[in-house]
Design a protein that fits this description.
The chain is of the alpha+beta class. The chain is built from ten helices and 17 strands. It binds adenosine monophosphate.
């Protein structure tokens, strides 16, 4: 067990790192943020900050030496540079590596007997044409790596789009997935400790706008039996990957109530922000507990919640939320607002 007063290293300095550092401080830990940008949102609330590139092995070694455990809030970190400090990192970097590659991630999920959208790995225009013919259209073409918030993906509606689509994603490795006309998108956040104990938050519904999460509704309005199935899937993945830490499992609910896993995130997730204001233990505290070897906290929902992201100019409305009795406003302290940038969120509790 890593006791309070120890230092938790966090790779990444965005809003997730900021909320992790706040949760760490509440339990009496210090946070040390490692981030390439100066004045990142997390640095403002952490005791220590290292400003260095993610592949700066010397800086990473010094960082690892100064902390008791390391976790991450950001997935696109080059894993090769983390090798020398891997022993201190939770979740294990093998999980990070898997989640950085859509094909490996989906194959791992399928190996556990869990369904995803049908997919084909693609490395060339020729392979893309063959994949489109075998899967049928419409289908979604995504880069295998570095994709988030809909970046690096395009929907193929006809074979005539293949040339432009392949050029457009500009990647050596990609994945073509069947287009799923889902009824709903949900996610389940699961935590697992080193002894194998697990704790799940209730499935929530996620609504995206322009491929970016706009809104999360907790709980998702699905039947209790489907909710149980979703939790079972999340637990099976956490168990199957020997997770120590937290993971969000994003799923599509199909028209006939089947669950297809879309994506895994081995870190706190935007769809879990509501847990700060509506659960006994927030997803951020749960991460700290899991990586430090404390008992996992209760995931009990104290009330229903709806979280909305404040994206870009939405931030201009911040004052309105401070006057609403059931609104909990969270601002990330980002100096500059840009289109598509997550500036804060509001959780409405009911
Ligand atoms: P992703 O980057 O895989 O999380 O995709 C971002 C969003 O695009 C998802 O949350 C869905 O709304 C949509 N999407 C991704 N894959 C598919 C698919 N195979 N079929 C339909 N919509 C998809």
């Amino acid at each position: 067990m890593i006791p309070p007063a120890s230092t938790i290293g966090i790779l990444g300095g965005g809003q997730l790192g900021r909320m992790l550092a706040i949760a760490a401080a509440k339990l009496g830990y210090h946070a040390h943020i490692y981030c390439p940008e100066k004045d990142c949102p997390a640095a403002e609330v952490a005791k220590f900050t290292t400003v260095a590139a993610y592949d700066d092995r010397t800086a990473l070694k010094a960082f690892a030496k100064s902390v008791d455990v390391i976790t991450y809030e950001f997935e696109n970190i080059p894993v090769a540079a983390l090798g020398a400090i891997a022993g201190k990192i939770k979740p294990d970097i093998s999980i990070l590596e898997l989640c950085q590659h859509r094909v490996l991630e989906k194959q791992a999920v399928n190996r556990l007997g869990i369904a995803t959208a049908p997919f084909v790995p693609v490395h060339s225009k020729k392979e893309l044409l063959a994949a489109a013919k075998s899967l049928g259209l419409p289908a979604v073409l995504k880069t295998a790596r570095m994709g988030y918030d809909g970046k690096g993906q395009t929907t193929l509606k006809s074979l005539s789009m293949i040339e432009t689509a392949w050029k457009g994603i500009n990647a050596a490795e990609a994945i073509l997935e069947s287009f799923i006309t889902f009824r709903m998108e949900i996610s389940v956040i699961v935590a697992r400790d080193a002894k194998g104990t697990m704790a799940c938050y209730c499935p929530v519904q996620n609504i995206h706008k322009n491929h970016i999460l706009s809104e999360t509704i907790a709980p998702a309005s699905i039947s209790p039996s489907l909710a149980k199935k979703a939790e079972k899937i999340a637990r099976a993945i956490a168990e199957g990957l020997s997770l120590v830490g937290i993971m969000a499992v994003e799923m599509f609910v199909t028209q006939d109530d089947k669950l297809l896993v879309n994506e895994l995130a081995p870190r706190p997730h935007n769809s879990g922000h509501w847990t700060i204001d509506a659960c006994v233990t927030s997803q951020f505290e749960q991460t700290i507990r899991a990586v430090c070897g404390l008992p996992l906290g209760s995931t009990r929902r104290l009330c229903n919640a709806r979280m909305i992201n404040l994206i870009g100019d939405d931030i201009k409305d911040w004052q309105r939320y401070t006057a609403m009795p059931n609104a909990k406003l969270h601002l990330y302290g980002k100096k500059e607002s840009r289109a598509g940038r997550k500036m804060g969120h509001v959780t409405f509790i009911y």
